[in-house]
Amino acid sequence: MNTAAETAKHYLVDGVNSPIRTGASGDGEMLFIQSGSGSKVTALDGTVYVDYVLAYGPLLLGHAHPAVVSAVTQQVQLGTVFGACSVLEAEFAKRIQSVYPTMQTMRFVNSGAEATLNAMRLARGITGRSKIIQFRGCYHGHITPGADTDRLLCDYNDSASVQALMESESIAGIIVEPVCGNMGVIAPEPGFLTTLRSLTSASGSLLIFDEVMTGFRSALGGAQSLYTIQPDITCLAKVVGGGLPCAVVGGRTEYMHYFSPKGSVYQAGTFSGNPLCMAAGIAAIDTIIQTQASERAAATATTLAAELRACSARYATPVSVAQVGSMLSVFFSDKCPKSFADVQQSQTALFPSYYAAMKAAGVLIPPSPFEAYFVSSVHDASDVAAMVRGLDEFLATQ
Questions:
Q1: On the chain, which terminus has fewer CB atoms closer than 10 Å, C or N?
Q2: Residue 342 is a catalytic residue
Q3: 156 catalytic, yes or no?
């Protein structure tokens, strides 16, 4: 164990502030990063990696983008948090609404988990019902034991199971990752999201899109624009803060006004809408739109996915590559999974050696077989080649 890991384990729970950072599902190593620039990160030992983790999604523009760095630098000199209003909040909200018109009225929070949990509270407050339908393998923040009793689970892409629950239970809402990212990338089957929209509309319950990962990544306007579905409530995070801790809950004004102080669903936060995150978010969204970053990253991801498939076709080990926008996953299975059960049936035992092979090739992927990879607008052909080389070298040993 390196010195940094030993020190961290002395003061932090198992040395980390998020479980995946232990590297237990990868090579067992706690990886310490000292800097990032563009598509690369530099580890504490000086090793440079092509980064396909990108902090699990937010860095669509790559690390330390000059526009975001400049905005943060200017704002930090004026103050980081006031616990009061700033004009930046409305400016940022206006920009988000221009891309996500279903978010008529918004409230900023500080993380995706905070956004999704408040969205579920909102659905309960609006409908007076308690039960929320979720999908196995999706992650929407930490669920307390009490709240868990009101969580009904279905399999992603299984419309019939959702319909059966809607007919037998009084449902406040359905929350869904419109494209799954927390069990690897899984796209919705044709008609699945349309069915969710129809069922919620007919029952008076709410459809919540958790676009924490898919926002700006499945498409500029998120999965809701890609699949032409209008949710009642949308949760954004990751990309929206330009790399700073920022998230937002938004939807139809009549629904959002159930939040305090206009409504009875109490929600507050000293750091919500803080000027530092607002400045970073404005810079990020302006740059994403002006440089067509979503489209450029998606194009690179499409090329990467195609080259990974071509590489794997030369070997006997079953490999499937799922890709939507600038998100992708490699599964060791004959076909792309459609649900968490399918993911669990893939050859996840191969992952530790695959992860190690990627690191040896100078490529950083998430240290878990159940996470999406992310491509930035600044990844280039050499970055694509590095990942393909890593997969090739791994498959050649199987």
A1: N
A2: no
A3: no
